[in-house]
Design a protein that fits this description.
By secondary structure, the protein is an alpha/beta fold. The chain is built from six helices and six strands, in the order E-H-E-H-E-H-E-H-E-H-E-H.
Length: 164
Amino acid sequence: MRSIVEAYWDSKLPIYDIRLSQLQKEGINCLLIDVDGTLINRKSTRIPKAVKDWISESKKFFSLYLISNNPSEKRISKIAKDLDIRYKFNALKPRKKATLDVINEIKCDSKNIVIIGDRIFTDIIVGNRCNIKTILVKRLDRDGLPIKLNLTLLIEKLITFFIK
């Protein structure tokens, strides 16, 4: 049995380098996607072209839903509108309620859902608590490139080493 803090797949890649064919092979048909750090830099509202292209291609194969802890509906709704994806803001991950509400709304079997995010203590834990697959991705900088050193993730991984 996997630990609650262990990602199903630690991709070590930015989201736009996740191969859609790999997700299809896993039987995935629905993607729950974190926003800040995963799709765009936390201090930006500009969606990188590589992310837009990946999202556009993903829509051909998967049902997509943005799920963010960000409390600003204005910010998350703008991003969701730009990408034409349904969304949930202020999700309070790793609490389960908002994620379970989304899972019930999309009506997908939990074995066919994956949550993609850049944080262990929010995205990965909530996915594991909701019994869905989890993918850890690299956080993006302001230019949409993967950051070289993610201190937060480094600390989270260090802490998880002691609680496994």
